[in-house]
Amino acid sequence: MAGTEEGGVGEASRMPHVVMVSFPAQGHLNPLLRFAKRVAAEGVLVTLCSTDHIARRMSAAASTPVAALADPTPVGRGFIRFEFFDDGIAPDDPARDNLDLLMAALRSTGPPALAALVRRQDVPVACIINNPFIPWVLDVAAELGLPSGVLWVQSAAVFSIYYHYRHALAAFPSEDEPDVTVQLPGLPPLRPEDLPTFLLPTSPYKILKNVILEQFGNLSSASWVFANTFEELEHEVIEATANRQVLIPIGPLTDPPPEEGGSKGNGRREVRADLFKAAEESIEWLGRHPPRSVVYVSVGSVVVLSEEEMEEMAWGLKQSGRPFLWVVRRDARERLPTGFAEAVAAEGIGLLVEWSPQERVLAHEAVACFLTHCGWNSTLEALTAGVPVVAYPQWGDQVPDAKMLVEACGVGVRLPAPAIRSEVQRCVKAVTDGETAEATRRRAAEWKEAAVKAEAEGGSTDRHIKAFVEEIRKLAAPATN
């Protein structure tokens, strides 16, 4: 094990060892790493694995040699290290952007590569955890005689929707009956427009639907199914689903601000798995603005808005009368009005960055609201930060996530699609000015308090993670004694 001869790092070899395997995407890596930190902090060695392509991207984003990622890093009372396996696609092959081809390559190359990785570990492995899109990880664990688990990276509500669809336990919209209202235990009636879009008969993304549903094919072989949510947020659906599949809520999986000292407040070097280099000037720029004045805008790492939407969003933000921080990835810059970024920067009213340290941004006192695509990571980060939202979902689980934020949590408003500038202005004003906005802020603050309570010592999430660690400690005992 690299680096274990120095200081106290040799302790890692005597700890229970968990291998976690992530699908190669930022939205999957983030929650799995955060789960890894929580587990490691209890005195566990966690080896977090993904593909060689992810290793190269992490190395570039952090300006760190790939080899250094394998060094165990202290987190609380434990350690985290990274290892990677070949996905069977050459680094410069454009096929990497084709999900069909990537999934086929992972299914072919991944199982033997992961099995070899696990076998060569210098510390006995107690269990293997994966996240969606790579269900074959559970099969590898079974072949190796190891217990396994899954971290579901979307809401418990969305888990229940997919579970009932996959097992034909409820009526869903179909080509013959597209207007079905879905009735599921623990959830309000769901109209077609409330469902994950991949389940609609009109969805053009059949591959994404199939990839998601594939995880449910061998889910029964998992010893644990964790969910990135918390009891206070989704108690009813978690309880209602338990008679078919027990979900263990271990969220919200977010990172504390750096000043709190990283995971569990240990003050050691922060462990990250960023695939994009964050614009640190975002924080300095926010510091030049008054409390609750800035509109923060991000549609995540996958969604790309049309040229018309980008133009309407741009002018709507500018005409809102508030400063704004807008994450516009490089592949979307050309859709902006000519000279827009330069003009708003010169006026001091807007900053456009390619990527931001989102949790730090949302925690900043200058942020008034978050215009979000409602990906589940962003949804939990908004609730944990207590920031009101303007919900602008695009596809998949973002649609029910937006419904939860607006209707169940009451922390924002829905921006109709496609966006037009007058609606952008109206929605921003609705969550930032007046009595309605004040009520929204109060509810957002209440959800922040509930999230903090779940994560705190003795909270629901803390109890579930400690119970899991105790289980793997018993599993590891014969190998580590």
Briefly note the structural class of the backbone: alpha/beta
Average pLDDT: 92
The helix/strand series, from N terminus to C terminus, equals: EHEHEEHEHEHHEHEHEHEHEHEHEHEHHH
CATH class of the largest domain: Alpha Beta
* β-strand number: 14
CATH topology of the largest domain: Rossmann fold
Any idea what the CATH superfamily of the largest domain is called? Glycogen Phosphorylase B
**Neighbour order of strands in the largest sheet:** 3-4-2-1-5-6-7-8
Number of domains: 2
Helix content: 40-55%
Strand residue content = 5-15%
Span of the ends, CA to CA: 19 Å
Largest sheet: 8 strands, mixed
Number of helices: 16
Shape: globular
Low-confidence stretches: 1-8, 259-268
Fold and architecture overview:
The chain starts with 16 loop residues before the first strand and ends with a helix. The relative contact order is 0.12. Mean pLDDT is 92; it is low at 1-8 and 259-268. The chain has an eight-stranded mixed β-sheet. The protein has a six-stranded parallel β-sheet with strand order 11-10-9-12-13-14, sandwiched between helices. The chain has two domains: 7-273 and 456-480, Glycogen Phosphorylase B (Rossmann fold); 281-432, Glycogen Phosphorylase B (Rossmann fold, 3-Layer(aba) Sandwich). With 481 residues, it is α/β, with parallel strands linked by helices. Helix 3 runs parallel beside helix 4 (136-143), helix 9 crosses helix 14 and helix 12 (376-385) packs across helix 15. It has helices at residues 26-40, 52-62, 99-119, 136-143, 156-166, 206-214, 231-241, 281-286, 307-318, 340-347, 358-363, 376-385, 398-408, 421-432, 434-455, 460-480, and strands at residues 17-21, 45-51, 73-75, 78-85, 127-130, 148-152, 224-227, 248-249, 294-298, 324-327, 350-353, 367-372, 389-391, 412-414. It is built from 16 helices and 14 strands. InterPro entries: Glyco_transf_N (IPR058980), UDP_glucos_trans (IPR002213), UDP_glycos_trans_CS (IPR035595).
